[in-house]
Amino acid sequence: MKKRILVTGGAGFIGSHLCKRLLAENNRVICLDNFFTGNKTNISPFLSNPDFQLIEHDITVPFEVEVDEIYNLACPASPIHYQYDPVKTIKASVLGANNVLELAQRTKAKVLQASTSEVYGDPIIHPQQENYWGNVNPIGLRSCYDEGKRCAETLFMDFHRYYGVNIKIIRIFNTYGPNMQKHDGRVISNFIVQALQGRDITIYGVGGQTRSFQYISDLLDGMIKMMATESSFTGPINLGNPCEITITDIAKTILKLTGSQSQLIHAALPPDDPAQRRPDISLAKTKLNWEPHISLEEGLKETIAYFRTIL
Ligand code: NAD
Ligand code: UDP
Fold it and tell me: Which of 129, 112, 93 is nearest to 224 (CA)?
């Protein structure tokens, strides 16, 4: 009997890759999305597959469906998108979490929450371990996302402790790859599009801030392994590539790989932009026997090739 797996946010960047992988692994996939940042072309290859079902729906509104597993990804993820309507963003995280958890409680499904490294805020402890509680501004421009995701983690843990729901929490660090939107606003897509179009590369601030970028296929491996862990293991668990790089160096790497003549220019640093970020992945290594395999250069080459086809 095939598993019935719900992917909320399944038409987005990560969600569409996850739907593809789960279908390839012989599951039935139900994709729920309101297409706020998701894209119909991301899922169009699956629409004719009898094992794939699309539900156009807003996760903040309760819904019913019979499922065995749920991956909860529905939430805008890029700063320009999640700040576009911050009230809607925090509702997507908090009401969305409540709705998938009530569904999991009723159907006895396992439910995995796509949380984020943003729960660590602008971290003082470096690299970030899961037991670090973070340094988050509760009233800033990023708070609708950061605090929404933190509250969702709380709901997940409370549904687990009080109602026995089988939950998993992953904290995803910056992830990139094909299917990112060209106007998504995130650094990798911005820089590649700017480089390929010969436009200036916009470094926010002086460019010394760091991030650690993981390629999409590595993340998918970790997500699926996490879902398969024993019910006593809930996480949270970091999934990211510990290879840390400054934003200036990522710009230079993308210039080199695209052969672009674009100039590096500086623009204002957004408020509360974290100065550094790198996951400690010891827990994922031990519990999931997982670590990333795709180097930054390999992953960027794939992503650049994708953007060349769509631009
Ligand atoms: P994305 O914006 O491409 O995908 C999000 C999807 O959720 C979109 O298809 C969007 O239409 C859908 N969505 C948004 N609000 C919704 C709502 N109210 N109801 C139904 N659907 C809704 O972003 P992504 O990068 O694929 O991120 C997916 C998840 O992973 C998000 O929850 C995000 O917070 C988390 N995450 C991503 C990263 C990353 O680097 N990409 C890092 C940390 C966490
Ligand atoms: N950034 C940048 N230029 C851009 C887009 C982003 O310098 O055109 C910087 C941004 O200020 C941040 C880093 O790149 O320091 C990562 O930004 P992104 O929005 O991709 O992810 P997040 O800040 O959520 O980790």
Answer: 112
